[in-house]
Amino acid sequence: MKKTVIVTDSTADIPDKMLEEYGIYTVPLYIHAEGKEYKDKIDISNSEIYSMLERGLKVKTSAPSPKDFLELYKKVLEDDSGADIISIHISSKLSNTIDSANLAKSKLLSNVIEIFDSRTVSMSLGLVVLMAARWAKKGLEFETIQKKVQDLIEKTKFFATVENFEYLLKGGRVSGLKKLLNFALKVKPVFITDEGKVKVSKMTRTRNSSIEKIVSEFVLAFSGKKVIASIFYGDDLDAAKQLKQSISERPEVQIEEMIFTEITPVIGTHSGPSIIGISAIPVES
Questions:
Q1: Distance of CA 233 to CAs 44, 79, 269, Å?
Q2: Residue 119 and residue 195: Cα distance in Å, rounded?
Q3: pLDDT tens digit string along 131-181?
């Protein structure tokens, strides 16, 4: 039986231990600051990027190059001769990462690489990747995993909040923010992913209210269902724990597995350090 190998990018926010456990390959995005280029999670830490942001430095991010993907795909095919590759990535409306992956695939002229646009980010992407890796580990066929991945992408949910719009306004990754400039630093937004974009769903006045909104949106989406979920955060561990506790107190949703993880520096560049959120997928019946 041919082996299926799963590839993703660093914005998936999957804990390193899980990447290792399931043999998931990761292509890092890039951070650019002070005339230097850093590979996400490799050359720069969260604390370093938050320090740069606090100092008001101009920080930018960029997608991996086609060469990065080409080198990784070649490595996978050399390490696992005859393997198939499923490559799942950050929304094409948030990054050009998937364009680089497709260019690399075209250069290889390979029919054993299938590339998916997750239409989301962070652990909403990460959970799809993890499930794909688990299906591969169970020995499911390449075509079966592809179908299940596409189906799961449609069912994945993302809810997040930040203290204010400051970093998101600078990064320009959230739709409709320019209309909110007059009071952007005073409200606590709740975000969802929709049609591949990060959009404002609700706005609140306090941190506690934004956490309550996340919980209510999560319960509305998954009431009566069993889910695998992930709490993700920047540097506000206390708020992340508060969110986790609030979710655990809601009997309407059965949490089969909860993953607690820190976002990558690339995501932190756009969200700022205050981000917390939850991603979830339904468990197959």
A1: 17, 34, 13
A2: 7
A3: 999 999 999 999 999 999 999 999 999 999 998 666 666 554 554 545 455
> Which residues are CB-contacts of 125 (< 8 A; sequence separation ≥ 6)?
8, 11, 12, 13, 88, 89, 90, 118
Q: Report which of 160, 13, 215 is spatially closest to residue 168, judged by C-alpha positions.
A: 160
Q: E strands of the chain, at which residues?
A: 4-9, 25-27, 30-33, 36-39, 59-62, 84-89, 113-117, 157-161, 174-175, 188-194, 197-204, 226-233, 254-262, 276-282
Q: Which residue has 């400039």 as its token pair? A: 181
What is the helix, strand, coil percentage profile of the chain, to 5?
45, 30, 30
The side-by-side arrangement of strands in the sheet containing 25-27 is: 25-27, 4-9, 84-89, 113-117
Q: What is the pLDDT at residue 170? A: 57
Is the torsion defined by CA of 121, 71, 20, 40 positive or negative? negative
Query: In whole angstroms, what is the distance from residue 5 CA to residue 23 CA?
Result: 8
Q: Counting Cβ atoms within 10 Å, is residue 124 exposed (0-12), middle (13-18) or buried (19+)?
A: buried
Whole-number pLDDT of residue 111: 80
The C-alpha atoms of residue 59 and residue 167 are separated, in whole angstroms, by 10
Question: What pLDDT digit, counting tens, does each position of 119-134 carry?
Answer: 999 999 999 999 999 9
Pair 235, 51: CB distance under 8 Å: no
Domains and CATH numbers, the chain: 4-154 (3.40.50.10170), 157-282 (3.30.1180.10)
Per-residue confidence (pLDDT) for residue 88, from 0 to 100? 98
